[in-house]
């Protein structure tokens, strides 16, 4: 490794990407494939008062789902931050209320991708906007609007560790320093976002999922739990700019 420090390293993955040889989830085509398009909330916090589905849908549309239709699938698995942390209840689609801008409120499944997109634009959602807090420090202040009302406040976990005589160490120190640190948000920009292709083989019960994920084993476990399907019959293939 010492020979590489300070020297340019030629990337080896670029040729197939710039010549159209990369494999993405969107490149996978299967017989009788359906496409799903999601209607998302423009509000960071709001009550869903009504979702209007067009009375007449194109013949290519297979189904239109809202949160109430899929409420039995859930709550979805949520990775616990630490033992004792507050765990919100999450569902495939928002039920009665949205809690962040972009949360999915309806899903259109169709035989044609562009038909699904067109129908999504015809879905009307009536919202009752609620106060929202976007500053994390203000969000933890007493009385701040909670993201999940059933959890009381926005503090997920209080974590403290103390070893030895901390008070004595501070009292005997020549100098002490207190400071606040502001850390920038992590904003990755992958070439492909969270695309997923799923195929179910009814005779064997095998569910094959191709996903742009870097955690295929965790995804397999979560899918098994959410769908109540045996984990040994769930196969996850990670598609990641290969």
Description of the structure:
- This protein has 242 residues and is an alpha+beta fold.
- Among the domains are: 28-80 and 91-130, Alpha-Beta Complex (Aldehyde Oxidoreductase, domain 3); 137-161, no CATH class; 194-242, Aldehyde Oxidoreductase, domain 4.
- It contains 5 helices and 9 strands, in the order H-E-E-E-E-E-H-E-H-H-E-E-H-E.
- The protein has helices spanning 14-18, 113-122, 136-139, 166-171, 216-227, and strands at 35-40, 46-52, 61-66, 97-98, 104-110, 124-129, 196-201, 206-211, 234-238.
- It has a 3-stranded antiparallel β-sheet, covered by helices on one side. A 3-stranded antiparallel β-sheet has the order 4-2-6, with no helix packed on it.
């Amino acid at each position: 490794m010492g020979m590489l420090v300070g020297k340019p390293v030629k990337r080896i993955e670029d040729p197939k990407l710039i010549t159209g040889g990369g494999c993405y989830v969107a490149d996978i085509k299967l017989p009788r494939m359906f496409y799903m398009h999601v209607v998302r909330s423009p509000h960071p916090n709001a009550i869903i008062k009504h979702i209007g589905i067009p009375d007449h849908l194109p013949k290519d549309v297979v189904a239109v789902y809202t949160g109430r239709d899929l409420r039995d699938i859930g709550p979805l698995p949520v990775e616990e931050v630490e033992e004792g942390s507050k765990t919100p209840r999450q569902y495939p689609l928002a039920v009665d209320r949205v809690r962040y801008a972009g949360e999915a409120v309806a899903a259109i499944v169709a035989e044609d991708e562009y038909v699904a997109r067109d129908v999504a634009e015809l879905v009307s959602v009536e919202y009752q906007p609620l106060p929202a807090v976007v500053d994390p420090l203000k969000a933890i202040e007493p009385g701040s609007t909670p993201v999940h009302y059933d959890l009381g406040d926005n503090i997920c976990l209080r974590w403290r560790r103390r070893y030895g005589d901390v008070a004595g160490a501070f009292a005997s120190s020549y100098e002490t320093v207190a400071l606040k640190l502001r850390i920038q948000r992590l904003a990755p920009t992958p070439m492909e976002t969270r695309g997923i292709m799923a195929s179910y083989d009814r005779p064997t019960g095998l569910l094959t999922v191709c996903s742009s994920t870097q955690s295929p084993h965790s995804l397999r476990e979560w899918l098994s739990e959410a769908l109540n399907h045996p984990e040994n019959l769930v196969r996850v293939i990670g598609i990641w700019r290969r």
